[in-house]
Amino acid sequence: MSNTSxxxxxxxxxxxxxxxxxxxKIAVTSRECSLLGRREVLTGKAKFGIFGDGKEVPQLxxxxxxxxxxxxxxxxxxxxxxxxxxxxxxxxxxxxxxxHTNIAEEPMSAGRQMGGHFATHSLNEDxxxxxxxxxxxxxxxxxxxxxxxxxxxxxxxxxxxYREVEGIDTEKFSVNGxxxxxxxxxxxxxxxGLFFETINAAGVLQVPMVMNVWDDEYxxxxxxxxxxxxxxxxxxxxxxxxxxxxxxxxxxxVKGWDxxxxxxxxxxxxxxxxxxHCPVLIHVNELTQxxxxxxxGSHERYKSKERLAWEVEFDCMSKxxxxxxxxxxxxxxEAKAIEKDIQKQVRKGKQAAWxxxxxxxxxxxxxxxxxxxxxAANSSxxxxxxxxxxxxxxxxxxxxxxxxxxxxxxxxxxxxENSESKTDLINWIASYKAKIQPKYSxxxxxxxxxxxxNINAEAPKYKVDAEMxxxxxxxxxxxxxxxxxxxxxLIFGEDAGHIGDVNQGLEGMQEKYGELRVSDTGxxxxxxxxxxxxMAMRGLRPIAEIQYLDYILxxxxxxxxxxxxxxxxxxxxQKAPLIIRTRGHRLEGIWHSGSQMGGLxxxxxxxxxxxxxxxxxxxxxxxxxxEGDEPxxxxxxxxxxxxxxxxxxxxxxxxxxxxxxxxxxxxxxxxLVSYGSTLxxxxxxxxxxxQVGIDAEVIDIQSLLPLDINHDMVKSVQKTNRLxxxxxxxxxxxxxxxxxxxxxxxxxxxxxxxxxxxxxAKEHRPAYGTDGDYFSKPSAEDIFEKVYEMMHEANPAKxxxxx
Length: 803
Ligand SMILES: Cc1ncc(C[n+]2csc(CCOP(=O)(O)OP(=O)(O)O)c2C)c(N)n1
Ligand SMILES: [Mg+2]
What we know:
The protein is an alpha/beta fold. Helix content is 43%, strand content 11%.
């Protein structure tokens, strides 16, 4: 099922009629899916439903203007559009509603996302790119309202880069930069800051973005009068309209039930965006929600009788039907026949989806019951196990939870017994879990051969007369090598362009590589991130610069909700190998020395988090990441740019391994673990400790996500039997995470002779100035005394008390 994008110009009435009829059939199919979908939830077959009824007709118009290579970044109402571009059929729609975990049956997310969250596949089985110019693309939806906006900007910007930057291999991604990024959003969600930030940025960048607002006057129960000034988004955005003097937007307003006008507006909008790379806003108003917001409530509670009556009259489908009758496209009887036929098809598709959904679990149930019955036959607790087997057997449509509950509970009745069937039961549970768990957990990170831990380290090389230079020069010259080696790489951020970043790590790069590849952006962290996500999803290698680590919080929601979940929520069918460059740690004051690592670690699982101790290490991380296909944050040490480091000769080539710790000083008495700027203080303190006879081993973690994939830290604890984790995050933050890794995951507790400890910063933000730092974050004296205290406890005679 798919509609073609012929223009209405050169076609006969018969052609025209056929096209409109085909559109109507798609819309009826979509509406029937919504109606039946709601029933499936209310009868308990599906858990939650949110549907696109009331928004069908504008989506037909959008689909007609949408071409191969284009991208959608939208929200949960777009099922009609997805059907119209041929990316969603009836059975798949219901597979999504049920949460089918097979990607072949449920191509949107393999059951990970609730229905109504759409995606197409950008990647082949092995994680390599498909040819995106030969298919219609949808980036994977997320639930946070307006969360689709930042990425939309990047999807659109990619076309501009492909059109205007020379030397990039565009084959799989672009034809002359002609692709449009189409956004959809609900009227109420335009209240979010992300909407306004994106609208402004796209106007500045002049990228081919067509932004569609589906306006039904409500956001769940909240009316437009509480959402939007003047209750009218296109009215208040009028200032963005381009004119003879200034570039800006082309803005359209059109009624959502007016099929011929919608088709016309979308064709015109597409020409402006595609040809001129001018962003477009289409405000589609007078839309409805026939069944209310979602299956969680009913709109009769908050809509007036008059409004409800208006919604019936202005339902876009009945308006389209009426128009079709008036224009002799069909008669009422013909329409009824079409509708009846489609109702049947939808019921059939729904049934097929349910049968396919239930089938594997039924088979697993039969296996489990057999294993349970065998275990019962040989057990003194036969009656109890049989009961579990019988209870499982009678479930008509079992889910996996029920299968595991029965089998796992049965194990408890055979703990003291020894039989072959008990072993069979144990093995069955283990192999079942091994088979099923990945359906829910795989693809958080890349599973292709380009994943980070598959990329080999390469040491920096030095000429005999290598100079000691300001470390920022290593960063700059390495970026120079990167931009030459990878024509598809580009960097952007506040002050990243003209002056070459606030620490001169990009000095001269804009002059050399141009304003499109090394660019200044507005102060708008969330959409800087979004630019990166969208461009990375279209095959470019963006480096998004967040000026200071402290300000990453503005982008954190998008990192956490969008970037970190992308591979996971598409079951590995989309990727955005975006590199986020930032700088942080110890400098001056509350907002220039943050180290909110605990927060980041826990919120961005799915993105690597790298914390190099110097610029050579950092540059090596960029080189590694560019060979891989995963997103990462690199936190450069803010106080390290002017320190001296030796200039390597293999710039762009040396690689710091990801997930591998480095022992920077060997020792036998205690293991000190740290990273980033604090590591330098730990190294200095280790020298002072040596003077009093304490031989500390110092480990640089380098990579917080992933952390120590080779389990090297426990080997050190095995040798020293003592452990202190030093970190400048708050107490219980990153240090607790590191401690858990060593003590629990790596079984470090077995080798400890002293209580394992952490030394973190104070709970408050770091105060300003040198003393502010000294009284806020772990100092050399703090570290010395903590280690000394641990050694005193172990050997008071050798280390008499300090205080
Ligand atoms: C950030 C965020 N806040 C709240 C919600 C809960 N929520 C889901 S949809 C919705 C209303 C959206 O209304 P609108 O944008 O007009 O879209 P419509 O559903 O009317 O098409 C809300 C509040 C959410 N998903 N994300
Ligand atoms: Mg709305």
